[in-house]
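Tutorial handout. Part one gives the primary structure; part two gives the three-dimensional structure as tokens.
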Amino acid sequence: MPFALPEGLLPVGRGSAVRLHRPVGRPIMLLNLYLPAASEVLAAKLLDDVFSFAAARGDETILLGDFNLPPDRAPIADARAAGFWRLADETVEGDIPLRPTRRDEHGQPTGRCVDFALSTVGVPALDRQQTPGPADHDLVSYSFSLEKDTRELPRAPSRRPLPADLPPVTTEAWEQAWAQHDAAFDQALHATDVNAAWVLLSHAAESLLTGDPHTDAGHLPRAWVISPRPRPSPSTKSEALQSHPERRLRRLARRALELQRRPEDPSASGLRQRVLRDAVELGLMDCASPQVIADAALRRAAQLEVSASQCRVRQWHDAVQNNVHRLRRWVCRTAAPAPGPLDDAPVHPIDIVAAEHAKWGAQWSIPAPHTSEETRDWCARLGPATAPWADDLLHPTPAAVLACLRASSRRAAGLDSWAPAALALLPLPFFQLLTRLWTCCLSACKLPHSWHHVRITLLPKEDGGLRPLAIASALWRALGTVVVRNLRAWALSWAPPSLLGSMPGRSCADLHASFAADLHHARTNRLHFAGYKADIKRCFDSVHVAQALEVARWLGAPRALLPLLQHFYAMQQRHMSWQGVYHPSAIRPVAGLLQGCPFSPLLLNCIVCVWVRVVQQAVPRAVIATYLDDRTVWSVGRQPGPLVLAAAQAGDPVDRFFGLRHHPEKLACFGTGTLTKSFLVTNAQWLGPLRPHFVLLGVHYAVGLTCLPETTKLSAVVASRCQRIGFAARGMALRRALVRQLVLPLFAWCAPWSQFKVTHVQAWTRNVAFALWGRPPAPSRSRLLLWHVTGRPHLHPEHAMDFVVARQEWYRCSRQPAVVLTRPAIVPRWPAVLKKWGWTCQADGSWRTPLGVLKPGWDGLCALRRAADYAFLQRLWKEDAKSAPFDLALSTP
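Part two.
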């Protein structure tokens, strides 16, 4: 059915629209556009207005025609990056270059593609056909699916939205709002009713940030425990999209007018009761007669219609212009797999959630292999228990909790919709009351009901499949983070040096430094070298909380912490979600630590500590390095193979006792020497297959031969991200930030222990230059001006990797390492960087540079950055054929 576009939206003859009705669901709006070819700026302006019009309507929309803009130009690239619109060609054919839609005099395709279709997320394209057309452009046709799945989709409960750009709440405003709740809060704490106390605290905070939460019939307070449920479907008969409150108001107006027309009807009594009840729920309590109720309801509905349309347009502009998070997600989006034959794998979100719910529900329902008493006795045989530490470490300060929320302001909210960014706006008196509530939780071993409900978000893995990430309440995470920080001294008291994951002062760099040093030592001295790496399959999801708590008690954990964690997991309900769709029933787990809870790495490290102690006691000569669920064992010298085998056999009983299993695809061994390799192959059932090259915590290694890591896949990812940044990001500052955050971390972090091909690094440099310029730079450009003015030195891929090497050596020289697995050694690539920059190392440990002497441990990283950038720019100056033969000393960065 055709309908007229608003006047002034498009010039005459530049667009037409029809409404496509379908059997189920609201109609689809189809717009055909012919944008001007003389000016891309004018075409982009008109298309931006069309996007705003479609956002105001709120219906599913299809745009097709001659855009006279390629799909990688604004505002099309912005709309695709925001996630609201999809390119039909990309949906059908994947991430491949678009076919040109014009032909030359020989009938061959030429030029660029400006004839395509865009559709909103709910209308996927199924097929694309292109044939020669009657004019100068080809005829492109698409097939779209107009079917709509009628199944109800459970969604997260709708909470009252927070206004944009909220100012921080002042102390005076909080004290004034809290005065009426103070007595009830004290009474609830005295009765150890932590849930009632939290409801009072949450309602007061929400009233200051959003208004009174009880006056909005369409949204629920954040303190209420509401499971995910289907949302009301929009009306399919109304001309424009209506929100649920607007539908209720218009229904109330119709019923009130019907009551006024037939007041003496036998059914008028029941109708009058429904009208009065709905009027009270919708805030029309002062209306007496049916006519007054109808007029007030229609006025309120008209206001909601205008405000909802304006809100959709505002959200659209915010998502396109200011939502950097959506832009980052679009830049990092992986290409869809090539189309293949259909199988039985679920496709619809509710089917995917159902399959994952059954899969992880079975995983989290596996009974514990041993009881708490058996675990306690087993730990006692390893040695006497450590005296428990004081409970004072469990009481965070209000300022520490507030600082933690401010630091995590970009993190996601839990099922209660309390985001860290919103909680960080509250004043310090709120957190003083929160710490009192936490103290009551510790003493009573109870938590508020809403803190037990955890949102499980499914994230796609690189190798396929989905993995669960737990998002608990923001306050539980903040309080847990501060408590875990207070427990650092306790953790370091029992953690051996081989325990690296989530330990203060330790990182995976310590593992790589020791492993690379031993591997280099074995190569240069022709020594035997052997080792193996293992990964625990579903490690966090296989740990039983009762066993982990018993090990923590044996290691001296504070007494009040363990019962609270036991209560948290005993009352826990996990809600599985995928793309905003939830499973209707929650999972009550028996096993599995939450991946995302601050206490989970600490509890897992308690079990890993036991494994390390047992293996070290059995094989003292072996070098052990563990990073949560990753384990690496190696040895250098005489008969390293039997030592590694003995370590694997010694740790196997510990894994079986706690119900842990090795991942068969990630178990591998490595070694040098014919006899050592033969021994490793013979014992492959314990050590895994022999690998000449392997990946250890993201770093590629080669044993026994010299080869560079394979970077074909990495280069494709770098090129894709740089291309999207150049197309979609507006402004040089945003492009620099995206390159620094999304491109350089792909390869720069492993530079101290990896070396890439020069041709690959040069290709990455060209890709980064394209991202900064938004197009390929001019061939005769000055590299010095490009990387000194436009790109900045720290964005150059080669220099970024060199600086990471220098920084790692800086850390090694500036402090005593927190963990020493073997002998300390310099970073392997550091001598090459010294030669490249023209620096020298002095006998006293200082570094002599053209800008002066740097002393690791005394000077800061800013001084190191300044000297490194100067060395890089000086080298570019010398290599530039147009530069004068004198030093660049007058233009230091």
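Part three, for discussion. The chain has four domains: 15-150, 244-329, 372-392+453-702, 712-879. The longest strand covers residues 453-460.
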